[in-house]
Design a protein that fits this description.
Blueprint: H1 2-15, H2 17-42, H3 47-50, H4 60-67, H5 71-77, H6 91-98, H7 102-120
Length: 135
């Protein structure tokens, strides 16, 4: 097998040395990027860690992608303009535009996410369920 590969390489080299060099470089790049993609896929965080708790710095699109919910439904729930007037806007900017506290917008986003998960029959990841505060 090894001598067969060497003879093929020698034939390629004698027929077209420049093309052989380009082929070897392309083959090495393919191997490097395949290994890189495999490592990133293996080391990716679990879905529960990708769905971060909703925070004021997040944009509605980021929240929708992070939680796997339809962006249009989330935007309607938090009354975000579609498309945003000056590009992507955080929940803080959206709250200022609406004239409401950012906590209200966050609560609306969380309620929309919970409703979508309930509609799909899937529970929210445990680390993201807000604990009940009893006084």
């Amino acid at each position: 097998m090894r001598s067969n590969l060497i003879s093929i390489f020698k034939r390629m080299w004698t027929a077209a040395p420049l093309a052989t060099i380009v082929f070897v470089i392309a083959l090495m790049a393919t191997v490097v990027f395949s290994v890189r993609a495999t490592v990133f896929w293996i080391k990716r965080p679990p879905a529960s860690e990708r769905a971060l708790p909703v925070a004021a710095w997040m944009t509605p699109r980021y929240i929708a992608r992070s939680w796997g919910v339809p962006p249009k439904v989330l935007a309607e729930a938090i009354k975000a303009p579609m498309p945003p007037p000056d590009g992507p806007m955080s929940l803080t900017e959206l709250a200022q535009m609406r004239g409401v506290p950012v906590e209200q917008v966050i609560a609306e986003a969380e309620a929309a996410i919970a409703a979508i998960f309930a509609e799909r029959g899937r529970p929210l990841p445990e680390q993201h369920v807000k604990p009940e505060v009893s006084e």
